């Protein structure tokens, strides 16, 4: 089996090439060819010796996922369904912000976390994504942006899957993303979002990398959280917020608390006050990011009214908690995370039947 070079961080590629008698610099050269000059043909890498080019062609490959479906929104959002080598499909989304181009990256094929409001969780996890496949998600978006001389500037590992359930592969991917010779995305522009695996948060806190952390909290108390997120049965809110406080003591920066606004469930005045007091009680330095819900046909939850979202944000601010309302993307396409993949799977099922 050939090794896909898109899956090797610079340190691992250097180790691999040095073990083959190459200089340490060789891996940097290859990084520049594939990520900066976007040359994927070993034969065109003219500053590499002919003999090593032949070795590269024999033992390595540069495989990227294929674009299976593409949806373009009027607001500039692009949603791709990518087909991987084994036929599995994953979603990746380009979100154009005023400050740059963010990609929402999936970390697994399907997800086992079972959040009750989420389309991605409708399809259980088949497998983890490899570092090369996650790099492939960013490369696919970069190929689109190249048409307008732009590149991806921000990465949110917030698509389908739980990143801390695929920790090592996600970290290898992010090392490639963060590498100046690689995708060259600054650590401060990279965010990993967990649904709340406390051991993962602790491990991440002890890691030397300087990426951001987001937690999908979505509820002000355990009762509501258990109703919508099964992970809450293993890790209560107190334990979760303590883990965040510990993460910050270890040098972690401000944490983003993601909070999907669900009408009548977690968007009330009482919920707001309870959330503010939990954050203050645990002394977590946090930004609450209120997310207008993209309704999923198969799910019973409804989106909160716009006024209620504004009210919730203002009330948090008045209690000294930083809060923002997330910009909505792609409301004219299958905006909810995982929706496009679920739709495609259903179609395939109908054709097979
Ligand atoms: S919200 Fe995230 S963690 Fe929860 S089921 Fe969906 S993809 Fe998985």
Question: How would you describe what is shown here?
Answer:
- The chain has 353 residues and is an alpha/beta fold.
- It has two domains: 3-61, DNA polymerase, domain 1 (Orthogonal Bundle); 66-352, Alpha-Beta Barrel (TIM Barrel), CATH 3.20.20.70.
- Helices cover 36% and strands 19% of the residues.
- The chain has eleven helices and 14 strands.
- The chain has helices at residues 10-18, 25-36, 50-59, 131-145, 167-178, 198-206, 222-228, 237-249, 269-281, 306-318, 339-352, and strands at 3-4, 60-61, 66-72, 78-83, 89-97, 100-104, 108-109, 127-128, 154-157, 190-194, 212-216, 255-261, 286-292, 322-325.
- The strands form three sheets. Strands 3-4-5-6-9-10-11-12-13-14 form a ten-stranded mixed sheet, with helices on one face. It has a two-stranded parallel ribbon with strand order 1-2.
- Helix 5 links the parallel strand 9 (154-157) and strand 10.
- The chain is globular.
- The model has no long low-confidence stretch (mean pLDDT 94).
- Iron/sulfur cluster binds next to loops.
What general form does the structure show?
A: globular
Radius of gyration (Å): 21 Å
CATH architecture of the largest domain: Alpha-Beta Barrel
> What's the CATH H-level homologous superfamily of the largest domain?
Aldolase class I
Tell me, rounded to a whole number, the average pLDDT.
Answer: 94
**String of helices and strands:** EHHHEEEEEEEHEHEHEHHEHEHEH
Order of strands in the sheet with most strands: 3-4-5-6-9-10-11-12-13-14
Largest sheet: 10 strands, mixed
């Amino acid at each position: 089996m050939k090794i896909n070079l898109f899956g090797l961080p610079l340190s691992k590629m250097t180790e691999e090439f040095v073990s083959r008698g190459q200089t340490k610099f060789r891996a940097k050269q290859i990084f520049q060819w594939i990520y900066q000059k976007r040359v994927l043909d070993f034969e065109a890498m003219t500053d590499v010796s002919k003999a090593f080019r032949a070795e590269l062609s024999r033992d390595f490959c540069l495989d990227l996922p294929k674009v299976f479906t593409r949806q373009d929104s009027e607001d500039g959002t692009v949603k791709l369904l990518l087909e991987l080598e084994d036929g599995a499909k994953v979603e990746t989304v380009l979100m154009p912000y005023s400050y740059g181009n963010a990609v929402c990256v999936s970390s697994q094929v399907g997800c086992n976390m079972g959040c009750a409001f989420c389309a991605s969780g409708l399809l259980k996890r088949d497998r983890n994504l490899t570092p090369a496949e996650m790099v492939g998600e960013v490369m696919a978006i970069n190929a689109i942006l190249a048409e307008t001389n732009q590149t991806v500037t921000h990465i949110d590992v917030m698509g389908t899957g739980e990143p801390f359930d695929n920790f090592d592969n996600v970290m290898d991917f992010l090392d490639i993303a963060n590498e100046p010779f690689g995708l060259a995305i600054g650590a401060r522009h990279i965010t990993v979002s967990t649904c709340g695996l406390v051991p993962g948060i602790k491990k991440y806190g002890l890691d030397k990398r300087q990426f951001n952390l987001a937690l999908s909290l979505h509820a002000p108390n355990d009762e509501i959280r258990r109703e919508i997120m099964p992970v809450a049965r293993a890790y209560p809110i107190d334990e979760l917020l303590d883990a965040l406080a510990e993460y910050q003591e270890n040098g972690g920066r401000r944490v983003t608390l993601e909070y999907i606004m669900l009408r009548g469930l977690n968007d009330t005045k009482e919920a707001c006050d309870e959330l503010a007091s939990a954050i203050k009680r645990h002394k977590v330095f946090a930004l609450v990011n209120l997310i207008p819900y993209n309704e999923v046909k198969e799910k019973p939850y409804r989106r909160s009214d716009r006024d209620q979202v504004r009210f919730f944000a203002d009330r948090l601010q008045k209690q000294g908690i930083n809060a923002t309302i997330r910009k909505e993307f792609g409301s004219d396409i299958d905006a909810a995370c995982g929706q496009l993949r679920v739709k495609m799977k259903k179609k395939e099922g109908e054709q097979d039947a």
